[in-house]
């Protein structure tokens, strides 16, 4: 029998992984979008091989595939566990300094590198359930990277447990670590022939006990406004400034609905994420989200009608409208295979957790 204390604590793995900068980049066309994501992927391959897991591969697209062989005689379904290595491009992931708050007493946590950042149970009510636990935070100037290095650490803990505790019986297990999930490209170049699992679960959720079987369906939309360039000294009745057209367009977006800050529950939204350009042409980038895939087209047609309204105020201006499919609500497939959720729910119950079935106002691999 193995002494369970000899297995690396998840917290230790996690705090080590978050120090590696793995931000993805939505403006990059490479695969993966940033080379630095591979720094963590290569480390995972090294650690898996050190655990004597022989079927491990980092492919040319930045995906890590690994297999833990079955140790039982019976034929069991193959289960895949997945997590993504990248962190959001919205906040720096460089020089992350994780802080461990042991047996946290519930008092406000003031982050030392930016004392204006204070974590409280009032702002985050769920933390009331974690009083007395160890809490890990960033230091104030960066993301922590728990999304999804917590999932990465848990899967690696599973791998070590399976290898060091052979009396724990299991079927064949696949491990999958993906790049670029945060920019909606996490499975764009995945090789499903290398996964070959019957079931797959991403460890990329929210609070303890949450079981999420429904996500947004998602598109990206790009609206590009074209003006008319002219020398500003001789521009009267000639120049059309695309910056002003785009600004008017953004101002026409609803203020009291149809946006992340004005929606909740099962409501969809359209959200401008970036704007760039010059007087001759300006691009406005959007994400379009809804649980009902059919409604994405409705949202996009509405957005297009607002763009048409905007250019009417600037004779001579034109626009282009482009939609890029990102991902679809996983419930559309899971409804055809209810065992996937049923088995997960049973596992939660066996682990002593209260199951909260939820819908994700976001996406996942």
Characterization of this structure:
The chain is α+β, with helices and mostly antiparallel strands and 365 residues long. The protein has 3 domains: 4-93 and 145-204, Zn peptidases (Aminopeptidase); 97-141, no CATH class; 217-327, Alpha-Beta Plaits (2-Layer Sandwich). 25% of the residues lie in helices and 23% in strands. The protein has 8 helices and 15 strands. The strands form 5 sheets. The protein has a 5-stranded mixed beta sheet with strand order 1-2-8-3-9, with helices on one face. A 4-stranded antiparallel beta sheet has the order 12-13-11-14, with helices on one face. The radius of gyration is 24 Å and the shape is globular.
Keywords:
Alpha-Beta Plaits; 25% helix; single chain; 5-stranded mixed sheet; 4-stranded antiparallel sheet; 3 domains; Aminopeptidase; globular; alpha+beta; 8 helices; 365 residues
Q: What is the fold-level CATH name, i.e. the topology of the largest domain?
A: Aminopeptidase
Treating each run of at least 4 consecutive H or I residues as one helix, how many helices? Answer: 8
The structure class reads alpha+beta
Instruction: Provide the gyration radius in Å.
Output: 24 Å
What's the helix-strand series? HHEEEEEEEHEHEEEHEEHEHHE
Question: Topology, pairings included?
Answer:
Layout: H1 10-17, H2 37-50, E1 55-58, E2 64-68, E3 79-84, E4 99-101, E5 109-110, E6 118-119, E7 135-137, H3 146-164, E8 173-178, H4 192-195, E9 199-202, E10 210-215, E11 217-226, H5 242-252, E12 269-277, E13 281-290, H6 293-312, E14 318-327, H7 331-334, H8 339-350, E15 356-360
């Amino acid at each position: 029998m193995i002494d369970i204390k000899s297995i690396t604590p998840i917290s230790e793995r996690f705090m080590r992984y978050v120090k590696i900068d793995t931000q993805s980049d939505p403006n990059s066309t490479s695969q993966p979008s940033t080379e630095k994501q591979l720094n963590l992927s290569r480390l995972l391959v090294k650690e898996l091989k050190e655990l004597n897991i022989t079927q491990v591969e980092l492919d040319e697209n930045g995906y890590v595939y690994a297999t833990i062989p079955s140790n039982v005689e019976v034929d069991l379904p193959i289960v895949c566990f997945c997590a993504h290595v990248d962190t959001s491009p919205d906040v720096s992931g460089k020089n992350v300094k994780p802080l461990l708050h042991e047996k946290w007493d519930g008092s406000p946590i003031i982050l030392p590198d930016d004392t204006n950042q204070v974590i409280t149970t009032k702002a985050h009510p769920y933390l009331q359930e974690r009083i007395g636990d160890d809490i890990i935070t960033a230091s104030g100037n960066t993301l922590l990277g728990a999304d999804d290095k917590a999932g990465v650490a848990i899967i690696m803990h599973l791998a070590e447990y399976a290898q060091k505790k052979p009396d724990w019986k299991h079927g064949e297990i696949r491990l999958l670590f993906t790049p670029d999930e945060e920019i909606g490209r996490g499975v764009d170049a995945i090789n499903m022939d290398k996964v070959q699992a019957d079931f797959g679960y991403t460890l990329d959720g929210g609070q303890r006990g949450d079981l999420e079987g429904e996500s947004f369906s998602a598109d990206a939309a790009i609206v590009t406004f074209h003006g008319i360039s002219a020398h500003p000294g001789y521009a009267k009745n000639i120049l059309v400034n695309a910056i002003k057209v785009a600004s008017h367009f953004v101002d026409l977006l609803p203020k009291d609905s149809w946006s992340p800050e004005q929606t909740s529950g099962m409501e969809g939204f359209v959200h401008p994420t970036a704007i760039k350009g010059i007087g001759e042409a300006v691009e406005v980038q959007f994400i379009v989200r809804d649980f009902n895939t059919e409604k994405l087209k409705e949202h996009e047609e509405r957005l297009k009608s607002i763009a048409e309204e905007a250019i009417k105020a600037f004779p001579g201006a034109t626009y282009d409208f482009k939609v890029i499919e990102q991902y679809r609500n996983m419930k559309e497939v899971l409804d055809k295979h209810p065992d996937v959720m049923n088995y997960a729910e049973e596992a939660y119950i066996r682990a002593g957790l209260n199951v909260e079935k939820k819908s994700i106002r976001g996406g996942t691999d």
